[in-house]
Amino acid sequence: MPKVLVVEDDLQVLAMIRQHLQLEGFSVVEASDAKEAWQLLLEERPDAALIDLNLRTERDGWGLVATVREDGRFARLPTVVMTGVEEPHLADRAEELGSGFLSKPFSGAEVVEGLRQAMKRALNTSRVVLHLAALRIEGTVHLPAGRFSDGWEALMREERVFVPVTEATVSAGDSSDVEVPFLEVRKADILAVHPLEAG
């Protein structure tokens, strides 16, 4: 399941976000300030981040987003910034930093939709065939934006051991195909890959 880092120091807002994300199948890791958030980025390697702009610490959410964008490991991390401040330029600034934008108060559905849109913008979806020793897996993988070969190489260089595949069909030579909504394929087991189409 996709892992989301939520950086929010208001416990009520955090609880609402956590509840809605978990109901939608996301795993949630939480931080209340930028320092803790950076540590979790390094340790947990989340798939996306929701960041409150008005953290009650020296370093605000903008500083955290800028650090994320400047670091090569997280430059393409899908992010959504959140704020209760009503200033017209904030959404534009978020867009310049490659982030989605949510204005408080917001509903749980708006959080989920904003996060999904940010993830969709940051990634290419590609239908692929993965060849393993005894299996053929056809499914959708999410790669960094750009050419398929570059995105696949970037995915394989990541520290994660598994490649997430959605909408997968698993075939073993002598048995019926099995369809699964999500699976993780161990990188070391992949013998070959080729795209069916790029999304």
Describe this structure in words.
The protein has helices spanning 11-23, 34-44, 61-70, 89-96, 108-122, 148-157; strands at residues 3-7, 27-31, 48-52, 79-83, 99-103, 123-131, 135-144, 162-172, 178-186, 192-198. The chain has 199 residues and is of the alpha/beta class. The strands form 2 sheets. A 5-stranded parallel beta sheet has the order 2-1-3-4-5, with helices on both faces. The longest helix is centred in the middle third of the chain and has 15 residues, at 108-122. The mean pLDDT is 86.
Topology record:
Blueprint: E1 3-7, H1 11-23, E2 27-31, H2 34-44, E3 48-52, H3 61-70, E4 79-83, H4 89-96, E5 99-103, H5 108-122, E6 123-131, E7 135-144, H6 148-157, E8 162-172, E9 178-186, E10 192-198
Parallel strand pairs: 1-2, 1-3, 3-4, 4-5
Antiparallel strand pairs: 6-7, 6-10, 7-8, 8-9
Poorly predicted regions:
none
Number of helices: 6
What would the average pLDDT be, to the nearest integer? 86
Strand order of the largest sheet: 2-1-3-4-5
Strand content: 35-45%
Distance from N terminus to C terminus (CA atoms, Å) equals: 21 Å
